[in-house]
Amino acid sequence: MKKPLAIIAAICLLIVQIPMGLAQPISTKDAAKNALTLSTQYYKTLKTLPTWWDFMAVQGLTGVGFHMPKDNSTSIAGKQAIEALMLLAGGENPYVGTPDSKGDRITSLLAQRGQNGSFGTVSVQALALLALEGVGIRDAAAQQSLLSQQKADGGFAFVGDVGDVDATAFAILGMVASGVTVDSSALQSAKHFLDMSRVDGGFIPAWDTEKQPNPCSAAMALSAYMAMGATAEADLVAAHLLQFQRADGMFVYALKDTDGDPYTTAQATMALGDYVSGQCRLTNLALLSHTVSDRAQIGTWALGYVQTALQSKAMTLDANQAFCPKATVTVGEFATTLKAAYDPSNAFDATPLDWMLKKDLVKGHVIEATRAITRQEVAYALSRLYQLSESKLRPTDAKSASAEYLPHIGAVMAEGLMVGSRNEFRPTQTLNRQEMAKLAAIILGK
Asked: pLDDT digits over 322-341, tens only?
C-alpha cells in the first residue's frame, strides 16, 4: 500500500507547485457583474429607497422594484429635474407624473429657468439639461450657461476657480446629453481634467483635506467616462471602485471603514451598472428622446440594450419612429433580429426563417412567422444556436414548461442568456421588443 500512497503524495505535490500565475484572472467587467449581483442582494433587503441615486441604480438590477422615493434637494430646480428623471427612468410621463405625485415636473422646472438659461449650480444645470433633453427639449441657452462655467484647468467647480471631479463629471453628463460632441474642445478639456485628477484609478476631491480616494467621485467619473465612450479609462476607474464593496453588497465610503454607506452604495451601483451595460443611463434618457418617439415607454433597464440594437440595425423603428417596447415579438421578427445580431455580415445567405430552419433552431419543419414566439421557444433556439450543453438547472415554474424544452431552458439560464425574474422563467409567456433588444445586445457582444 505504500507505493500508491507515495504516488498520490507526489501528485499532490505537483498540484501544489503549479504556478499561481497560470490561473485565469477575472476581468474587470466580470468582477463588476459579480458586484452588481451582490448589490442586488443588498437592495432586496430594503423596504424603501433612501435617495434618487438608489432609484436610478436599481433600474438595472434584476428582480428589484421600488416606488419612486421623495427627493429632498434644497434647490427647487434640482428637485424638479431629479423627479423628472426618476419618472422617465420608471417609464412615466414627467409632464403628468404618477397618481400619487404632484404632477408636471417639466413645466415646474422651466419656471425656475433664468433669462440666460441658468438653473443654478453646475450639478443642477446638468440635471436640468438631462431632464429637458429626456422629453426632447433642446435648450441652447441652458447648454451655453453650463459651458460658461468651465474653468481654466478644463474642469468645473461648485465654488471657486479650481475644477472639482464631481462637478466636472456632472458637467460632462449635461454636455453629452445636450448634444455637445465628444471631440469638442469643451468635452476634451473636461476629460483631460478627469484624466489628470486620477490617482491610481481613483479620485481625490479638491475639498478633501485628508487626501483619500473617494468612491463617490470615482462613481461620478465612471459614468462620465461611459457617457463619452472612454472605455479604457472606465476600466481603470471601475477596478478601483470595486475595492470599496463589502461582502453584503454595500460600499464603504473609505477603505478603512467597516460599515457600508447607503449613499456611496447607490452611486457605485449606478456607475457600475453603466460600466457593465456599456451605456450611461442618465445620458441615454436624453439621447433616445431625439430618435425614438416613444422613448418614455422604454424601461430604464432596457435603454442601453435598445440603443445597441438600433445602432447595430439588428432592430428598427416603425414608420412613426416608435420602438414599441411592450409589443409582442413574432416568430418572424425573432428570426430577423436573431440573424441580424448573430450574423451581422450576412455570411449565411438565406432569409432569416430559412436560416432558422437550416440551423435547426425551431422544432418542426414549418414556421408560423406571424405567431407570437414563447420564451421556451427562444430558449430552444439560443441553446441550439450556441450548442450549449443541456443543463439540469430548473426555474421554480418549470412545471409550466413543455418537457422537451426544459433542458434548453436550463442551458440558457446557466449561460446567463436568459435568467427570468425571481428564479421564474415564465416559459409559455411571450417576448416583448425591449426583452428582444436585451437578447440582441448580448448576442452582438458574444
From this structure: 999 999 999 999 999 999 99
- Neighbouring residues of 423: CB distance < 8 A, sequence distance ≥ 6: 395, 396
The DSSP-derived string for 271-305 is HHHHHHHTS-HHHHHHHGGGT-TTGGGS-HHHHHH
User: Rounded to the nearest 10 degrees, what angle do helices 375-385 and 406-415 cross at?
Assistant: 70
Beta bridge partners of 372: 330
- Three cell numbers at 391? 443543463
- 119-147 in b/e burial notation, b at 16+ Cβ within 10 A? bbbbbbbbbbbbbbbbbebebeebbebbb
C-alpha cell at 19: 504556478
- 112 and 124 in contact (C-beta within 8 Å)? no
Which residue, among 37, 22, 27, 69, has the nearest Cα to 50 in the 3D structure? 69
Spatial neighbors of 246 by CB under 8 A, at least 6 apart, are 252, 260
Which of 129, 143, 195 lies closest to 168, judged by CA?
195
Closest listed residue to residue 169, CA positions, set 228, 214, 118: 228
**What region does 233 belong to: left with phi over 0, alpha with psi -120 to 50, or beta?**
alpha
Binned at pLDDT 50, 70 and 90, residue 268 comes out as very high
Instruction: Tell me whether residue 69 is exposed, middle or buried, using C-beta atoms within 10 angstroms of its C-beta: 0 to 12, 13 to 18, 19 or more.
Output: middle
pLDDT at 365: 63
pTM summary value: 0.69
Please check the confidence at residue 63 and state whether its pLDDT lies above 90: no
**Is there a contact between 136 and 292 (Cβ–Cβ < 8 Å)?**
no
Measure the CA angle with vertex 125, ends 122 and 126; round to 5°. 85
What are the distances in angstroms from CA 311 to CA 106, 277, 288, 314, 344?
A: 29, 15, 11, 8, 12
442 has pLDDT over 90 = no
Question: Which residues are bridge partners to 421 per DSSP?
Answer: 424
- As a whole number of Å, the end-to-end CA separation of the chain is 51
Interatomic CA distance for residues 132 and 355, integer angstroms: 44
